[in-house]
Amino acid sequence: MEKGLFRGITMSIKGRIAEIIFLGVVKWIIVLIFAGVIAYFIIPKYEIVEGKRLFNKITGRIEKREIKF
After folding, report:
1. Of 16, 38, 43, 67, whose CB neighbour count within 10 A is largest?
2. Residue 69, pLDDT score
3. 11 and 2 in contact (C-beta within 8 Å)?
4. Alpha-carbon torsion 35, 44, 57, 63, what sign?
5. Do the Cβ atoms of 58 and 45 come closer than 8 Å?
6. Which residues does 22 contact at the CB level (< 8 Å), separation at least 6?
7. What is the spatial distance between Cα 52 and Cα 7, in angstroms, rounded to a whole number?
8. pTM of the model
9. Residue 43 DSSP one-character state
């Protein structure tokens, strides 16, 4: 007797396929969330232009901010 993720004693082929697809979709959603969070912290958001001004790469605007090193 096989036990599936959905606590069935036996699962039909349709149930097994649904389980595999469900786990695959959940896996890719988690991978995409982690990739987005990592990209947010790795990709530099600002570039220094014209002295004390910063170019925001995400919005495309030049912002006046104090540069702290």
Report:
1. 16
2. 57
3. yes
4. positive
5. yes
6. 5
7. 61
8. 0.49
9. S
